């Protein structure tokens, strides 16, 4: 077989790796977490996942911030709520990491805290929010535009004009102020672990293809000699 054939086959494997990686990362994610439900936490803590297509959880697992693992199983599509049978999540300094059957990190949360012992949960929108539970449903990501504007609106002090001469000396200019989303330095420095995982996996695939191709080239060269 020619070197070109081997190169084509390696490229096919590379693109297959890319497709699998993208599907693993985008197909499922953690969408809502109940750390501290009302009353007794035992058997009442839960984690919600979302997948835009059918998914088999066999071999998947979640790990909390203490390093304790829970193996998942079963199949689902769209929203799936995993109810934890024991008290497994801490009310502060808690995070969840979600791994697939190949051991790759699919999704993870930031550090959470919940000391309110009520129906509020952590939910992902553009960023994580602590709002009333939307268990097995679309997250509560809507907000009043008036409320958002009131938080970011800048006010201009009024000018008291008592004399006509003062009016002539003022060259007014209309300034339109638009509310802007201001992110903290901490948010700007957060690293998307899923993206890093994808880049790492793709780099591994590229290296693997290159090594196989190089091996075949040297093998072919030795045969010709």
Overview of the molecule:
The protein has one domain (3-224). Helix content is 32%, strand content 23%. The chain contains five helices and nine strands; from the N terminus they run αβββββββββαααα. It has helices spanning 3-26, 145-152, 164-168, 185-188, 193-224, and strands spanning 28-34, 46-56, 61-64, 69-71, 75-83, 96-99, 105-108, 120-124, 128-132. The protein has a five-stranded antiparallel β-sheet. A hairpin with a 5-residue loop joins strand 6 and strand 7. Mean pLDDT is 74; it is low at 21-26, 144-161 and 163-193.
The largest sheet is: 5 strands, antiparallel
Strand order in the largest sheet? 5-2-1-8-9
Poorly predicted runs of 5 or more residues: 21-26, 144-161, 163-193
The CA-CA distance between the termini, in Å, is 16 Å
- Care to count the β-strands? 9
Number of helices: 5
Radius of gyration: 27 Å
Level of helix content? 25-40%
What is the helix/strand order?
Answer: HEEEEEEEEEHHHH
Query: What structural class do you assign from the helix and strand content?
Result: alpha+beta
Count of discrete structural domains = 1
- Beta-strand residue percentage: 15-25%
Give the rounded overall mean pLDDT: 74
Care to give the gist of this entry?
By secondary structure, the protein is α+β, with helices and mostly antiparallel strands. It is built from five helices and nine strands; from the N terminus they run αβββββββββαααα. 32% of the residues lie in helices and 23% in strands.
List the main descriptive attributes of the protein structure presented here.
four-stranded antiparallel β-sheet; alpha+beta; 5 helices; 225 residues; single chain
